[in-house]
Design brief:
The chain starts with a helix and ends with a helix. It has two domains: 369 residues, 7 Propeller (Methylamine Dehydrogenase, Chain H); 251 residues, MetI-like fold. The chain is α+β, with helices and mostly antiparallel strands and 743 residues long. The strands form eight sheets. A four-stranded antiparallel sheet has the order 1-28-27-26, with no helix packed on it. A four-stranded antiparallel sheet has the order 2-3-4-5, with no helix packed on it. It holds the Pfam family BPD_transp_1. This is Phosphate ABC transporter permease. Its main location: membrane.
């Protein structure tokens, strides 16, 4: 009976063992699959960023306006608008080849000699006439849905009455237009070579009253040869570029200040003999692109140097084949533009990311009279001399993101030099998104570095003393107390760091830094004194409880630091330490900085590193240390030559786990780092990390947008960073174990 009972228990135990083995194996496989699925998800979301911009020809439509001077298309490119030389606005259905609406905007016998449009999806259009008059209108495409069908109701609305900008009979040959939510400005060049500038305030309906100011500037060089006029969105600069590549930049600000003659500067864009063939203003009217007959393609922006001198800054040169560009068309809703080359090839370029996409066509480019990209950026329209419009579908959902824009310094509009910057969006609709991950990666590494700089000496020193020198009775009290710190939520540490420690450190920086310098000295002096007086004091101190003697040393050192800090600032520096650091080294002090983060995150990392390292030291076989001591080695020699090498795999694992914790920490850096994406090594400046950026911006980002996918790239970087660190740590730990296994 006992045998049968024993066999029954054995069988039941085997069943339980198999179940436990299967459950544990399934759990391990499940963890691995979860990690793999996370990686697959991240790669799936990042994959669309790898697709280059592309063009697909969709066919040719007949347009009832072969004499178009300006071509506009609504969001999806199904309805177009052509402004004719006679001053008519002709709407037409591109998908059905039929006219929708024709409206005369000018009087009989009027002739349009110049036309342009603001670089905005809702931008106004400006028409200049042979009589020197200017007309500002706004194309509108009202969309309605009736019984499930989408219907467009196109119209053209005047913004201001017909304005006599130049003297009667002085034809306007070139017009530039820029618009914001509240202002609109126009620049024009007449046949006599004189330049005119006018600006208006816009009401909530987009209408303008009388002009704020109308300026007349002296004639430029080569009247009638202007290839481009440009007015920036702030109405500060007026740029004129001739077909010979010569440019003039007018500073309009002095006219505002009642100075009689505005400042100007001039120069040449191209080499001798090179001709301007095409130009286009980019979205937001902060910069423009020009092309030459020798294949040069430049993005330019007027700027004011530190010395106060005007200049036309070359933001970037695009790498293109050495062939002439016949037409440039800019997307009114992004910084994407299309270039039509003399061999029929069409290139898509994004100014910020410098991404390119190419399509080969059989178009006769010398017959193209007008080009346009639809308001929504999905269609490229090219009109020929016979009135036919060839449509191309544009696929460029994430053209603004590239490896260059994510990790290299980028020359943004309005900046004098390439920079690393993370600022994905602002309230301005025309803002150039800055999606560089380099400041976030730098901030992550910076936070981890200062965290480990604080945590490693503290945690390892405590682990060595607790695991090797401390009395067992004291160890049973100290170790659980330190490990209990790990249970404190990091959000609480971040809260305390941001609302208590950071303001305190701001007011007592000198005291804190002096205490950090004096404490090691005080401990070293205490050790020397203990070595001299140890024989006298040792009978009165329980073995292993010596650290309690350091408590009054710590208190005295803190008091000395407070006293010395006052002397340092008042008598030696003559100013606060923060002011001295700024004046001596140019380092700004931010209240929430890397020092605050290092201390706060260090307190979160110390328990982890301490616990694992202490266990590794305490687990070293007793016979190894006893044998070393028996051979005459001191305790320090035994620690250095026997205990530490044997425990090194565990200590290294502790450091790597702590580093992984520091790299991935979120709440402390969100609350205490200042969230300023800077790239500097200043201990007293803030930073922004990958994890904090994901936590702050992911809940509000538009799903599927470039910003969303760049955040996924940040998550992938964080995943790979921790994975590589942990994998390298495990490989090195195994190597250390094999090396010291003989001990």
């Amino acid at each position: 009976m006992n045998n049968s009972l024993h066999r029954g228990r054995f069988a039941a135990r085997q069943v339980l063992d198999r179940c436990a083995n299967a459950l544990i194996s399934a759990g391990g496989v499940g963890v691995i699959l979860s990690v793999v699925m996370i990686l697959v998800f991240l790669l799936h979301e990042v994959a669309p960023l790898l697709s280059a911009p592309s063009l697909t020809e969709q066919g040719t439509s007949a347009v009832p306006a072969s004499d178009s001077t300006l071509l506009v298309a609504e969001d999806i490119g199904s309805v177009g608008l052509a402004f004719s030389e006679s001053g008519e606005a002709r709407f037409f259905d591109l998908s059905r080849d039929r006219a929708l609406l024709t409206r005369s905007l000018l009087y009989a016998d009027a002739s349009v000699t110049a036309a342009t449009r603001a670089a905005l999806p809702w931008g106004a259009a400006a028409l200049g006439t042979e009589a020197g008059e200017l007309l500002l209108v706004r194309p509108e495409f009202e969309t309605t849905v009736t019984q499930g069908r989408r219907e467009l109701r196109p119209s053209v609305r005047p913004i201001v009455p017909l304005l006599q900008l130049a003297p009667a009979g002085d034809a306007l040959l070139r017009v530039a237009l820029t618009e914001t939510d509240s202002e609109l400005a126009v620049a024009a060049e007449s046949a006599s070579g004189r330049l005119y500038f006018a600006s208006w305030q816009l009401d909530e309906n987009g209408l303008a009253g009388s002009a704020n100011r109308v300026l007349s500037l002296p004639p430029g060089e080569d009247p009638g040869s202007s290839g481009l006029l440009f007015v920036d969105a702030r109405h500060r600069f007026l740029v004129r570029v001739t077909f010979q590549g010569n440019y003039t930049v007018h500073d309009l600000a002095p006219v505002n200040n009642a100075m009689p003659v505005p400042r100007l500067t001039s120069g040449s864009l191209f080499e001798a003999g090179e001709q301007l063939t095409a130009a286009a203003v980019l979205f937001g009217s902060a910069s423009f692109v020009v092309a030459s007959d020798r294949g040069a393609l430049l993005q330019l922006s007027p700027t004011l140097q530190d010395s106060g001198e005007l200049s036309l800054q070359t933001l970037r040169r695009f790498s293109v084949p050495g062939k002439a560009v016949h037409h440039l068309a800019a997307d009114p809703g992004s910084r994407l533009f299309a270039a039509v080359f003399d061999d029929g090839a069409i290139g898509l370029f994004h100014s910020t990311s410098q991404r390119q996409g190419w399509a080969t066509t059989g178009l006769a480019t010398d017959e193209i009279t007008a080009s346009s990209i639809s308001n929504g950026g999905g269609q490229l329209l090219l009109q020929d001399a016979q009135g036919g419009v060839t449509r191309f579908s544009i696929q460029a959902p994430h053209a603004d993101v590239s490896a260059r824009s994510l990790f290299a310094a980028v020359q943004y509009e309005g900046y004098r030099a390439p920079i690393f910057k993370w600022q994905p969006a602002t309230a301005g609709a025309t803002y150039e998104a800055k999606l560089s991950l380099s400041p976030l990666l730098w901030g992550t590494l910076k936070a981890a570095f200062f965290t480990m700089l604080f945590a490693i000496p503290l945690a390892l020193s405590a682990a060595i003393f607790t695991g090797y020198f401390m009395a067992s009775s004291m160890r049973r009290k100290v170790k659980p107390g330190i490990e209990l710190m790990e249970a404190m939520p990091t959000v609480v540490l971040g809260f305390l760091a941001a609302l208590w420690f950071a303001p305190w450190l701001d007011e007592h920086l000198a005291e804190a830094l002096l205490a950090c310098l004096l404490l090691p000295v005080a401990v070293a002096v205490s050790g020397v004194l203990w070595g001299l007086l140890g024989n006298v004091l040792r009978p009165y101190v329980v073995s292993g409880w010596e650290p309690l003697l350091l408590l009054p040393v710590f208190a005295g050192t803190a008091a000395l630091a407070v006293f010395a800090a006052d002397l340092l600032e008042q008598w030696y520096l003559g100013m606060s330490l923060k002011d001295y650091i700024y004046q001596r080294w140019g380092l700004d002090y931010a209240q929430r900085n890397a020092l605050v983060v290092g201390v706060a995150m260090g307190l979160a990392v110390v328990p982890t590193v301490f616990s694992i390292a202490e266990d590794a030291l305490y687990s070293v076989p007793k016979q190894l240390s006893d044998g070393s001591l028996a051979l005459g080695a001191s305790r320090w020699q035994t620690l250095r030559n026997v205990v530490l090498p044997t425990a090194s795999p565990g200590i290294f694992s502790a450091l790597m786990i702590g580093l992984g914790r520091a790299v991935g920490e979120t709440m402390i850096v969100v609350m205490a780092a200042g969230n300023t994406p800077l790239m500097d090594s200043n201990l007293f400046s803030g930073m922004r990390t990958l994890s904090a950026t994901i936590a702050l911006e992911a809940p509000e980002v538009a799903l599927g947008s470039s910003h969303y996918r760049v955040l996924i790239v940040a998550a992938l970087l964080l995943f790979l960073l921790t994975f590589i660190l942990n994998s390298a740590a495990e490989l090195l730990r195994q190597r250390l174990r094999r090396r010291y296994r003989a001990l």
